[in-house]
Prior knowledge:
Cofactor: Mg(2+)
Strand order of the largest sheet: 5-6-7-8-9
Largest sheet: 5 strands, parallel
Shape: globular
Number of strands: 12
Structural class: alpha/beta
Protein name: L-fuconate dehydratase
Domain Mandelate racemase/muconate lactonizing enzyme C-terminal: 213-309
Distance between the termini: 45 Å
Oligomer: single chain
CATH class of the largest domain: Alpha Beta
Helix content: 40-55%
Number of domains: 2
Strand content: 5-15%
CATH topology of the largest domain: TIM Barrel
Order of helices and strands: EEEHHHHHHHHHEHEHEHEHEHEHHEEEHH
Number of helices: 18
GO biological process, one term: carbohydrate catabolic process
Radius of gyration: 22 Å
Amino acid sequence: MKDTSLSAIPQQLSGPRITAVDTYDIRFPTSRELDGSDAMNPDPDYSAAYVVLRTDAGDGLEGHGFTFTIGRGNEVQVAAINALRPHLLGRPVAELCADPGLVSRDLVGDSQLRWLGPEKGVMHMAIGAVVNAVWDLAAKRAAKPLWQFLADADPEWLVGQIDFRYIEDALSPGQALTLLRRGREGAAGRAAVLRERGYPGYTTSPGWLGYSDEKLTRLAEQAVADGFTQIKLKVGADLDDDVRRMRAARAAVGPDIRIAIDANQRWGVAEATEWTRALTEFDPYWIEEPTSPDDILGHARIRNAVAPVKVATGEHVQNRIIFKQLLQSGAVDVLQIDAARVGGVNENLAILLLAAEYGVPVCPHAGGVGLCELVQHLSMFDFVALSGTTEDRVIEYVDHLHEHFEDPVRIVGGHYAAPEAPGFSAGMLPESIATYRYPDGSFWTADGAAVQAVVA
Length: 456
């Protein structure tokens, strides 16, 4: 058996090193209030496969990352992260922070682990969690929030962070460099605007499928009062229910607020077309995940059939290659990146650049556990130093579980306030980890005891 302990690492490496890769299975019982419920996922327990990179630098800085799941299987995701530990222990901190692409290339390129993908599924999400933890550490060591760390970075360096294999027919390194150099023009002014106004958001909080019509109406009215100009409703379980709920939502928000709808992959192509058309009287802004995230041609057919309703997808898209094909085939109007689904910041940079090359707006998926905290940085970088605009761009917001983070998102007047703390906003409070670690955290221990008492 290969020795992966620190004693096996060559001692000639100088400077601080990665000394521990700690993982945690964190689960929250959101299914009990039906928070997060939709047509495909009726009872999610929002969860995080969480990783902490620790060093011997003596500065107290750590790299935090995670990927999002919805309960059962989170232990499988944690195991996948654990499988990456040998690639990390003993590596020089300065080297990784100077070039996070090193660890991205090493993890994606492990030929035996790659067989489990390649570049998709549980293994790829594990890589994303670790890569994001490296970026968190790098931004902390630079004393900048990640959005600013990326926006201040040299364009040539950013291009070097991207794996162009499989996408160069749509985006070459030269094209990417041109986009990034152009994006630097006026970046300082946009950064000032971002700090003053924030980045536009929209909220899904009123729209969970398990909520009553009364709760939907109350939360939709509150969203408008809070300054949001777009809300989103989950659809796809029952058409009559969807018609009733859309009618209630439109009455609550009035004619000028956008209402997006989200089927969470529930339909085939024909059903997606028919169901979306049946809801057009309520002026839906986009239909999200109308079918399988892998069905590129299906998305294209749906888009042609339901226009002017826009088609949006991306939260379950596995990698930059699928995003490339969605753009090449004209299959989407709105691209939805996810901070924890693909291989971390490096791959999301590639996807943002692809979207900029094709002129398609990016409206990230968020919510879950910490996804709002992460993805805000990517959109803010895009505004400041790439696309240069927030027109038709919004970040999803869900008002759940932010209290468990050291640097939670701040919403002001329907906008994400720009993070100021160094890092990727990924740090979870130690007491939350201790409480919701599965199955031996204090909440789950007490919950199991209560269940046993009822059974007895």
